[in-house]
Amino acid sequence: MACPRDPVKIAVHRIADRFIVHTVGLLKRRPGAFRFVKKHLSNTLVHRIAQRARRNVDAQAAAVAATPPGTPADGGHWDRTVAAVESRELKGWLDWEFIEVEHIRPQVSGDKSHDYLEYFLAKHLTRTPVERALSLGCGGGNLERGLIWLKAASSIDAYDASPESIRLANELAAKYDLSQYLRYAVADINRLELPAGAYDFAVAKMSLHHFEDLDHVYGQVRRALKPGGVFMLNEFVGPTRFQWSELQLDLANRVLQALPRRLRRSAFSGEELSTIARPTVDEMIRMDPTEAVDSSQIIPLLSKHFEILEIRKYGGTLLHLVLNHVMANFDVTDEVQASLLRMIFLYEQTLVEQKVLESDFCYVVARPLPA
Fold it and tell me: Residue 360 is part of which domain span?
């Protein structure tokens, strides 16, 4: 794992970059002054510094924006953000209802009115509620509360590395009078030891890409499931540390540039997004050392311990990169803007189906291989 540089220097450089970008933005609001500066400073050292600052700010925003929303796994990072994630104040591309209904559900359940949980329960559990279920990387607990409300299980054991996430999950369970059904605990899931043959099913929602020792995690889940038990995951399975391919970046930037300028405003900087950049590995580690730590191996390693019963790929290869930044600009009640989004959905879906791009997100159900 690469060692981060001096955090003080990093912070100073980031502040300087943002100040430069902000200053350029102010100049652009004064056309006369901006033309003067552009004429006299074009291709000078000052111009090159400004361009570098813009690239750095975009890359930092990309690292944050590209983080799939969902379950906290690293205690420090997620202790600071779990409340915003749980309340949907911090929204990623998966958190928008329009995307869920119009793009994801048709590819997972085949029905806009049924989400992946309803589909999983109807297709893969012969009876509900089951006696006991397991959830790995539970974050603030929205998945477990949903499962109880759907009468999927009589009790659920849920684990997360973030103490603040577990505190919030317990608080919300009590608020909704669900504490008797839910048992939350702080644990390093890379080292967690689970009881043998204890669970009817196990779930992981946007958490496996935070686990470094997938072989251990899969081995424990395999051991912990009862005969006939299944493991369901809804996951980011794309490039490790978000090291997007050149083709992926090129196509994502083409989608971005095709949008009207008013729809390209970054949800992070508030300015027009000029390009989507690949974050460096060091930037990813500084942001969250667990983020996409071994994500590209989630599916290959799963097959070592489980038979995959069903896999539903729903893309995100371009939508993740683009819409995490700009989805907040869209008014989905405007039929023109809604149609534009549907065209982007179809574009990505076609590229994935034709194997031009891999799918970075998928829903999977698997059962343990025989011992």
Answer: 84-240+289-368
Is the residue at 39 inside a domain? no
In sequence order, which ranges of the chain are alpha helices (DSSP H)?
7-28, 31-41, 45-65, 75-86, 97-99, 105-108, 116-124, 142-149, 163-175, 214-224, 246-258, 281-287, 298-305, 319-326, 335-353
* Residue 68 maps to a domain: no
314: amino acid identity, one letter: Y
Backbone angles phi, psi at 61, to 5 degrees: -65, -40
Look up residue 277 and give its two tokens.
């950049």
DSSP 260: -
Q: Kindly report, residue by residue over 17-54, the tens digit of the pLDDT.
A: 666 666 666 666 666 665 666 666 666 666 666 666 66
Examine residue 97 and state whether it is found in any structural domain, yes or no: yes
Number of domains in the chain: 1
Residue 177 lies in a domain: yes
Q: What is the spatial distance between Cα 145 and Cα 370, in angstroms, rounded to a whole number?
A: 32
What interhelical angle do 45-65 and 319-326 show, nearest 10? 100
* CATH code where residue 294 lies: 3.40.50.150
Average pLDDT of the chain?
A: 87
Using an 8 Å Cβ cutoff, are 73 and 81 in contact? no
Confidence label for 86 from pLDDT (cuts 50, 70 and 90): low
CB-CB contact of 133 with 158 (8 Å): no
The string of pLDDT tens digits covering residues 114-135 is 999 999 999 999 999 999 999 9
